[in-house]
Amino acid sequence: MKNWLIFIVLGIIYFALAIKDPFITNNLISNLEPGPDTFYYSVPAWNLVHGNGFKMVAHGVEIRRIVPPLYGLTLVPFFKIFNDVRSYYFLNLLLDFISIYLFLILIKEFFGKEGYLLKFALGLVLVTNFYFYNLPTLLMAENLLIPLTLAAAILMIKKLDLKNFILSLLIIPILAFTKVSSFPVLVVFGIVLMIKIISSKFLYKIPKKMYWFLIPLLVLVVVVTLSKIVLPNIEALSGAGNNFSPVFLGKTLPIFLKEFVGIDGKYLWYNNQQIEKFVGILALFGMLFGLFLRKFRINIFILGSVILMVTVFHSLMSYPEGRYISTVVPLFLIFAGILFEKFKSPFLIIIFLGIYFLSRGTINGFYERKVTSLKRQILNNRLEENEVPWNYRAMENFNSYFREENNDTYLGSLINPFYVMYFGNGNYQYLPISVSQEFSGKGKGFIEKIYEDDKTIVSLYRRLLTEGKKVYVTNYYLKNYKGSKEPEYKNLEDSFKLTQVKDGCLGECKIYLVELRKK
């Protein structure tokens, strides 16, 4: 009963921090961040619900899916119920509640006892972590990968029996079908499972009749592992080219390691600490101290190996993005409880929470006490203009101008084609502006397929105008590319006559009518 009470209290606190209305524009949910990954996960699910198959297709153009399908498949029921892509937020909320529940189970398994106060304290640190309670707003597979990583950690720590063996065989393909970055977790998971099987002589203890079930399951897992994990990962890593290499290790690994102890942090467009410094340092000392205690040594080696493998693996990438290590942050937080468990003092836990909530840090540009930042977050969630999803506002502006359906009307935009598919009103056809905008280039190629018959975008526009089509362009997103698309937009200005027909977004999403220049 106490476990459920802890879960409910933590759930309420988390809900207060995370709850937003995805269907209004006082938050960034409508922007569908972070792109382009969000579209690789959501578009096939959206198309499946609308009868177009599990495909990356929009505006009659299809490109290859390049991410594992599981997170996308979990989106399907929500897209079906709400018929709005922003309903992904509700799935993410559900997954994060599952993460909280699994985190509490992991605490129990790690320490080998209930420890209600310790469980509540560590759970409180997790649910009040900015990146955790902000996670539902992001349409990315980490929402699913975190509970799966926690489940894998629990199975690695628990004693091997028939039920846990079957669950272990099942979670391997589930992790593999979630995200390529689960590879290091699978490596550690496989090694730990093999060590347990050999050291415990587990296979000799299984009833012979169970072999008829376990052998086919094992063969299936091996086949899936080779065909869907090993080979695709080799292909993905080889295709990464200059972006994935050991040469980045010396630069990126120290950045990640510092984030574990609360020094700096870079996570998408946020620059907040990955973990509060006080908690990170306590967790580090707890981990080192626990290595000298027989009770915790093996469990620390297991969780530490997962953390290290994930961190080193992503340190081979050219850019030290904090979300790559966010999936193992909950595992690292567990170590903060080792010193409290050793000295068995509830008073120390209370002091820890007092320091945690009263210590100062920078969250979203405000240097203030933790408790103040949490209060600010709860209040900001209700503000009418807390955040502005400019992509969605731009689409509203376009839709308000093109009120009547016309298949001969085209709008050129730097907004990616899948976003237009989600939020456009269907009264205009999509056109690109740049040959290098989002979803162009090797392995994507959506933009190239639109103008490939005309060779250039200018030629495409000229043909449409010659055929009597009405063509418009918008200046929206030019500043997002920091001027890199200005020359291509200017090329359109030099080649055609552009006349402004609508303003919007404080001048940042104007609409222009495109016409052939008179000779």
TrEMBL record:
Presence of the UniProt keyword Transmembrane helix in the record: yes
Keyword Transmembrane helix belongs to the record: yes
Domain of life of the organism encoding this protein: Bacteria
Signal peptide positions on this chain: none
Bilayer-crossing regions: 88-107, 116-133, 139-157, 164-180, 211-231, 275-293, 300-317, 323-340, 347-367
This protein's UniProt keywords: Membrane, Transmembrane, Transmembrane helix
Entry protein name: Glycosyltransferase RgtA/B/C/D-like domain-containing protein
Classification of source organism: Bacteria, Candidatus Shapironibacteriota
